[in-house]
Design goal:
The complex is a heterodimer of chains A (about 400) and B (about 90).
Chain A (H helix, E strand, L loop, with lengths): L1 H10 L1 E7 L3 H10 L4 E6 L5 E6 L3 H11 L2 E8 L1 H7 L4 H17 L5 E6 L8 H7 L13 H11 L3 E9 L2 E8 L13 E4 L4 E10 L1 E2 L6 E2 L4 E4 L1 E4 L3 E4 L3 E17 L1 E19 L2 E4 L10 E11 L5 E20 L2 H19 L6 E10 L3 E13 L2 E4 L3
Parallel strand pairs in A: 5-7
Antiparallel strand pairs in A: 1-3, 1-4, 2-3, 6-7, 8-12, 8-22, 9-11, 9-15, 10-12, 13-14, 15-21, 16-17, 16-19, 18-19, 20-21
Chain B lengths: L1 H11 L4 H4 L4 E5 L3 E5 L1 E7 L3 E6 L2 E15 L3 E15 L3
Antiparallel strand pairs in B: 1-2, 2-6, 3-4, 4-5, 5-6
Classes of the chains: A alpha+beta (about 400), B alpha+beta (about 90).
């Protein structure tokens, strides 16, 4: 029944008032003639109000004549009546058609590119690369050959493990899995040296192939040769090989920080001010003056693209600028506090940098008190396998 | 005899009774909605009183602001503040 009412809304229906003595008979005849009526309501007066579809209205009049009831139309509802109302307004109709046409037309373009990198890693210049290879906003949808774009981007960039482009409405979703950077692999048959890639002190060195140049205890810097890719024999002379070996070295990671005793910290007061800008591709309309009334503030801008359904983006965007008021606050640390803060911060930074925490051998913390600040130096001693292959060029 | 056999078969298949007989089915949801399936016709309709005939008797509904919302060939929905529902058996 609900479905039938919905269809009737599209076809059009009328609410009528029936007045007469044989109202019940009228309803029963309606039922027997299979006329769909709904929302029957009777007020305290004799009138009966009911809804009936446009097509059944003529039948209703016949029934009413039979039962000697008076029929009066109360309200006309539905799409045909709405259209009828706008029949005379031609310009309105033209613009309505134009609007529909432009939406259909604009749905053939790409208006938004969404790049989703797995694990939220950062990819530099990926949008520019995509644009260069043919996927840009404002492009005709049929023109984009996603396979070709993928192939071209992957050819250009080495750091993509997998890539997929999905065109959904006016939205292009680019999914990327980032590949881990691989060290340059030198062919087994080619001759190479092993060269240090970090600064440190060697604790262990064993050459499986080639001659070890550095000794245990040697201090090395970046680029120092560790194992040379040749063997010298008394009788055979110099023979070039593909150097191989394991080198373990103590590597130092040092970071420093200066913590002042008197610091000015900006704190949010909680007052906010929003300002909006309408953006049409590259054209901007400011709705308010751009300056904020706050003295010290932080600005956050976020862009919201208009979309009709979940994936039908329009080339219009609203840029929201939020100004957050801030307050300056003076904080005075004692030397002890400043030192602890510094150490904590530096250690955190170092922890992020070092991958294998088990290999940390030693931690060294130094600090120097100055007149207005404390300088903290933290050094981590880490045992690491070092060495990269370097091709021998003759 | 044939009808009786059909009845047995239907009972075995656990068909709802209102589907294969003329017996009406009343569904009251809350105190504001009453759906009657397999009704015959409306005998009286007022703002406060609805009398509906079925194949086995008559139903009287008392209440306030009673509307006959959806009316189709075999079911009718009465909404409004229903206060009492009375059943009148037709003696045959």
């Amino acid at each position: 029944m609900f479905f039938r009412i919905l269809i009737n809304f599209i076809i059009g229906y009328v609410r009528i008032a029936v007045e007469g003595y044989y109202i019940e008979r009228f309803i029963n005849i309606c039922k027997n003639e299979k006329i769909a009526v709904w929302n029957l309501k009777r007020n305290n007066d004799i009138k009966l109000y009911l809804n009936v579809g446009l097509r059944d209205y003529r039948k209703i009049i016949k029934v009413a004549k039979k039962t000697k009831c008076k029929v009066k139309i109360e309200r006309k509802r539905g799409v045909p009546f709405v259209f009828n109302r706008y029949k005379k307004r031609k310009i309105f109709g033209i613009f309505l058609m134009l609007l529909i046409a432009t939406t259909i037309f604009s749905s053939n373009f790409i208006w938004n590119i969404e790049v989703r990198v797995e694990n939220d890693e950062k990819m530099e210049n990926i949008v520019q690369d995509l644009e260069e290879m043919g996927l840009k906003t404002g492009e005709w949808k049929d023109k984009i050959n996603t396979k070709e774009v993928i192939n071209r981007v992957r050819l250009k960039r080495q750091d993509i493990a997998w890539m997929g482009i999905e065109l959904k409405g006016t939205n292009a979703i680019v999914r990327i899995a980032k590949a881990k950077e691989k060290p340059q692999i030198i062919d087994e048959n080619e001759y190479c040296n092993i060269v240090s890639d970090k600064t440190g002190v060697i604790t262990k060195i064993s050459a499986q192939n080639g001659t070890a140049v550095a000794k245990v205890g040697d201090t090395i810097t970046k680029g120092t040769p560790l194992i040379n890719g040749w063997l010298e024999g008394k009788y055979t002379g110099i023979r070039y090989v593909h150097a191989k070996g394991e080198i373990e070295a103590k590597v130092w990671y040092t970071k420093s920080k200066k913590v002042e005793y008197n610091q000015i910290i900006k704190e949010e007061t909680g007052n906010e001010e929003n300002k909006y800008t309408i953006k049409l591709n590259n054209f901007q309309i400011n709705l308010q003056k751009k300056l904020s009334k706050f003295k010290i503030y932080d600005t956050i801008t976020s862009e919201n693209k208009f979309k009709i359904f979940s994936d039908f983006y329009l080339p219009i965007a609203i840029e929201k600028t939020t100004y957050k008021e801030q307050k300056e606050k003076k904080i005075t640390y004692t030397p002890e506090e400043a030192k602890n803060i510094g150490i904590e911060q530096v250690q955190k930074e170092l922890d992020e940098e070092i991958e294998n925490k088990e290999n940390i051998v030693n931690k060294n913390i130094n600090f120097y008190q100055r007149q207005d600040a404390v300088e903290v130096y933290v050094t981590y001693e880490v045992l690491e396998n070092i060495g990269t292959e370097e091709k021998i060029v003759f | 005899m044939k009808k009786k056999g059909m009845k047995k078969l239907n009972r075995m298949l656990e068909m709802p009774q209102e589907v294969y007989t003329n017996v009406p089915k009343f569904t009251i949801t809350g105190f504001e909605e009453l759906i009657i399936e397999n009704y015959k016709g409306i005998l009286e309709y007022e703002n406060f009183f609805v009398r509906i005939s079925t194949h086995i008797g008559i139903v009287n509904i008392n209440g306030l602001n009673l509307n006959l919302e959806t009316m189709t060939n075999d079911d009718i929905r009465v909404t409004g503040k229903i206060e009492s529902v009375e059943l009148e058996r037709v003696i045959d």
